[in-house]
Amino acid sequence: MELEKITESKSSRRRYNDACGAAHALDIVGERWALLVIRELMFGPKRFSDIRASLPGISANVLTQRLEGLETFGVLTRKRLPPPASAWAYELTPWGYQAEPIFQVFGRWGASSPLHDPTLPLSAASILLSFRTMIDANRAEGFSARIGFTIGQEDFVATVADGEISIVREEVRDVAAHFIGRAEALAAAAYGAVPLETLEQDGALRVEGDRALARGFLTLFVLPDKAG
Amino acid sequence: MELEKITESKSSRRRYNDACGAAHALDIVGERWALLVIRELMFGPKRFSDIRASLPGISANVLTQRLEGLETFGVLTRKRLPPPASAWAYELTPWGYQAEPIFQVFGRWGASSPLHDPTLPLSAASILLSFRTMIDANRAEGFSARIGFTIGQEDFVATVADGEISIVREEVRDVAAHFIGRAEALAAAAYGAVPLETLEQDGALRVEGDRALARGFLTLFVLPDKAG
DNA sequence: CGGCATCCGGGAAGATACTG
DNA sequence: CAGTATCTTCCCGGATGCCG
What we know:
The structure is a homodimer.
Chain A: H1 3-13, H2 21-29, H3 34-40, E1 46-47, H4 48-54, H5 60-72, E2 76-80, E3 88-92, H6 94-97, H7 100-111, H8 124-134, H9 137-140, E4 145-151, E5 154-161, E6 164-168, E7 177-181, H10 183-190, H11 196-201, E8 205-209, H12 211-218
Helix pairs in contact in A: 7-8
Chain B binds a DNA duplex through helix 4 and helix 5.
């Protein structure tokens, strides 16, 4: 008898009912984990387990709910992978990819928090998105190179030219330098001023190819000043 | 004996434990209503009840919790108002004000959602922030004026010059045109192409001063294209 | 094994009533 | 007016289990 009321409450009581575009964005991605799921898809489609592996802490049922919600809102789509994988892959829609500026401004603002701890665990997508966000155009002006990354099982290639950087997820080939290791080590090298040698001795990071170039690449990025 | 574990779970289980700056931002403003509370403070300090009045749907205890949380994270501060008000006011810290780009990109992205409904209720802060976000530099190039707004009990003045707009909350004086009415009506006029006459007949909006200028002002803003 | 559905405990959000 | 107290509802997170 109260069925209509129950349905209504589930679908709309939890919304902000606010014409502000930002409030509507929060209706879509304001639930826990939603934005981080999108972040993990920013470099291309992934499978359920891959997303889960890069988001330690999310539980399977919550990931299922978020993927469902984001699909109904048109942020991502579900696709069958070609055999023999025959599993599902989740891919952002064009509009979903347009969420990248959200990570830029959120990342900048969050990184300038006095309580931000850059030594916590980090996913591959996070560190590579941060490169897009934090590159200093001045420092990158004279820099031009293709740099490869192997982080876990994922390969990425960054192309720096004319003060800009583009990063795609693809097999590492024909690169001038190649970083192999954990995302946290890459972050320590780029933002923490930890010497490459230290990281290599720890076995956290390995560099192949032009070491001087790799070193130069790591100097292109600057974190925002801490506030407060 | 499990006390330590319980304490630990309370403080950190709800965090993302992710070095990504965006994830840390979500630790701070990812809870429900938090970003909208910040939005309501973007034009200056407000009192508890003023915030609550502009966020229909938030309950008093949740607002209390958000204000406490945002204060401990350094996003806002609590101040005593000078007598005779002698009440508390909440004001963003400089770092809190730096969150404005979040509303810009969130607003743009949310407004390009196919499901965005611009006819829902709207706060004064929302519509004025949207003016900052959605102004089209080309259209505003030749436009120069001071425009006043009275929305509910709040007064704002927008100054447009050189394709840019600045908006502050202050008493409306020495303006070329003055909008008086509800935020929703202003949105309908600027984004919904609803004629001023219609809104005035409904009593939703009133315009004083230079009507041609007011009309021109309303043409400076464009919503992003809908995706999908 | 990957992708879910189901059940349960704890805790956050929401509504209402109440206090200084 | 500015919150607090309380109660209910619902979401999050973990575990288990089903099914291809």
